[in-house]
Design goal:
Blueprint (H helix, E strand, L loop, with lengths): L2 H9 L26 E4 L6 E6 L16 E8 L7 E9 L6 E6 L7 E8 L2 E2 L3 E4 L10 E7 L11 H8 L3 E4 L25 H12 L2 H9 L2 E3 L15 H13 L18 E5 L3 E5 L25 E3 L14 H12 L5 E6 L8 E3 L2 E5 L7 H13 L4 E6 L5 E5 L13 E4 L9 H9 L7 E5 L3 E9 L3 E8 L9 E9 L7 E4 L2
Parallel strand pairs: 9-10, 10-11, 13-15, 15-18, 18-20
Antiparallel strand pairs: 1-2, 2-5, 3-4, 3-6, 6-7, 6-8, 9-22, 12-13, 14-17, 16-17, 19-20, 19-21, 22-23, 23-24, 24-25
Helix pairs in contact: 2-4, 3-5, 6-7
Length: 510
Amino acid sequence: MDRRKFLLGTLVGLGAAPLAQSGYAEGKLFADPFTLGIASGDVTDSSTVLWTRLAPAPQAANGGMPDQSVAVHWVLSETPDLSRIVRRGEAVAQSAWAHAVHVEIDDLEPARAYWYQFHVAGYASPVGRTRTLPDSKHAVNRARFVTASCQNYSHGHFVAYRHMVDDNPDFVIHLGDYIYDTSFGETFRKHDTETAPTTLDEYRRRHALYKSDKDLQHAHAQIPFFVSIDNHDALEDNDPSKAQQRAAAYQAWYEHMPVRGYHVQGDNHFEVKRCITLGNLAQISLLDARQFRDKREVCSEEYDANYGFGNYRERCQAVFANERTMLGEAQERWLTKTIRENKKRWNVLASPGPFLPFTYQHNGKDLRYIGAWDAYPANRERVARAFAEAKCGHPLILSGDVHSFWAVDGARATLPDEQFPLVEFVTSALSANWPPPLAQPVTDNLPNNPQVRFYDPVYRGYLLHELDSRVWTTQARAIDDMKDLQSAVRTLASFQVQPGEPGFRQEYMN
C-alpha cells in the first residue's frame, strides 16, 4: 500500500473532532458497545461508508455512553479472516452524534468484496462484508439487488432479511419507512413507547429499538444498503412549522444509517437522492420524495374517513397545478437531466411511493391515494416526458409504500392521458400490515385499472431483481408468516422485461 492511501484511510471519518481531544480512547466501557450492529452503504465503484453506533445500553440516555468522545479503530480487509488489511484508521465517536461513526473510504477497487471490523476499549464488533459497485465506465454482465420498504417493528419479525441474505444480492435499496412512529394498535412486538417520537432523543430510541433486531443487523453486516426517507421516518410533507421535529428526525436517521450527506447538527435538510450506476448496464435514480414535496392535502376536507382510512380522496383543481411538486425544483431538474442523458441499458427510477396512476371508484367519484404520485400529476407528467425523450435505456419504475406486491403496465391504463409506456414493480412491506380498509378498495377497483396485472395484498416481503443486457427479471419474494422467526420464503410471481419491448411477461409460482 502506498503512503497516500494509508494516510487517507487513517484520516477518513475523523470529522471535526481531532483525535487528541477524543478523551476516551483508552477508557473502559461497562458492556459491549456494538449492540446495534454494524453496516455499510452508499457504495460507489470506488468507495463505501462503514457505520456503527456505540450503545452498550441502547434505550438508556445517550445509549449508555459517557458524555465525551471515544476513539474507534477500524480495519478493512480483502479477506473474511482480516488477514490482508488494506486500510486501517481511527474515527471519533462524538456524544453530540450519539456516538455514531461514519467512515468514508475511497480509492477502492470496483466490483470487489471487502471485510471490515471496529474495535473500541477492548471490544470488537462482528466482521462485516461490503462490496463496491462495478466500474462505472466498463461493461457489466449482470447485477442482482433488492428493493424493500416499510418495516414496522410492532407488526412482525424482520425475518425477511434472513432470506434476503441467502439471496445474495449485490446491494439493497430501502425505499423508506425504516422506522414507524406508531404501532397502529398492533401489540405483537411493542415499541419503546406508544407516543410518536418528536425529539432527537425519542427518535434515537426508536431507531435503536429497530436496530436491535438480529435479522436486520445480520443483513446490514452482509450487504451494503442504499436508503431513502419516507413519512414514518420523518414527516408527511414539507411543513415549515415542524422544521425542528424534521431536523431531529433527520439527525437521528443519519446517526443510524450507513450514508453520507448530513454534516450539521440540527439541519432541516439532507442530501438523500442518489444515482446508482452499474457499469454500462443500468443507472438507478433513487429519489427523496418527502423532503421537498408540497402539502398533499390541498382539497376539501369533505371525504369518507372510513374509506381507506381517508387516504383515498377526490382530486380538486389545485392538485393539477403545474407548479405542484413531489420532488422540489432542484431535485426535479437533476432527475429529468439524469433520465434524459442516460447511456446505460436500463434507465431506472426508485421512488418511495407508487408512480403510475390508480383510480378508486367510490360513491360515483374518482378517488386517488394522496400519498402517491397521483397527488402530483404535473410533476409525474414531466418525469414521464423525460423518459420518453431519453435516447438510450429501457425505463423501469421501482417503488414501495403500499404494503403489497404490484406489477403495473402503465400503457394499459383506461384514461388516455394516464397511459404511460412504463413498467412499475411495487414491493410489499417487510413487516408492516396491509389492513382490509386499505387493501379491499384496491381489490374492488382492479377491474377499473387494467394496467395492474398483478396484485397481492396478503404477503409481506421484498422484490429481488436480476438483470443483464438481454432481460430484467423481478421476483416477488413473500414471507409465509412474518410473526414466525422460522418462516419460509416463497416466490409468488416472476416478471420479465426485455429492452425495447413493451410491458412484461409474468409467471405465477407455486
